[in-house]
Amino acid sequence: MSQGHLALRRGRRSLAHHVYHVTTATKAREPFFRTSNAAHAAARCFTESPLLGDCRLLAWVLMPDHVHWLMQLGAKDSLEMVVSRLKSSSARKANAVLGRTGALWEKAYHDRAMRSNDDLARVASYIIANPIRAGLVEDIGHYPYWNSGWI
What's the rounded Cα separation, in Å, for the pair 144 and 122? Predict the structure, then answer.
């Protein structure tokens, strides 16, 4: 992580049972998940109970060069721990499919804690609409790398 990013994270705490919108990019914005096998391998990680612990993924979308997660933390694990497990496992599995080694994700990630008055369904819809806004598909039903409890 850059010194600037470390400075921004200093003093930040993740709160149990709070909802966070997390975004992280691939290394140098390389479109590793343009390949369907790599995208499938990574996306499977987002539903694995051992990786999530007591965290719940409320919505997510995997783009060719980044991912968005809307997650509600449980009581045990910090946001940093959950994000680290998801990034680590998805990188291992995608790298195996791609026949490569090394970092797949940037070290840093962006998170925004949702406020109690935030409309989570609206945030989930915004996340899920990423492939449409990026011009990858015209209808989200034609994009395979997402999930949402609202849609």
Answer: 20
Residue 9 has pLDDT above 70, yes or no: no
Cβ(107)–Cβ(1) below 8 Å: yes
Alpha carbon 53 to chain centroid, angstroms: 15
Instruction: Give DSSP secondary structure letters for 28-73.
Output: GG--GGGSHHHHHHHHHHTT-HHHHTT-EEEEEEE-SSEEEEEEE-
For helices 36-45 and 79-98, give the axis angle rounded to 10 degrees.
150
Hey, what domains does the chain have and what are their CATH numbers?
14-148 (3.30.70.1290)
> pLDDT (tens digit, 9 = 90+) per residue, 116-149?
888 999 999 999 999 999 999 999 999 999 999 8
- The model carries a pTM of 0.90
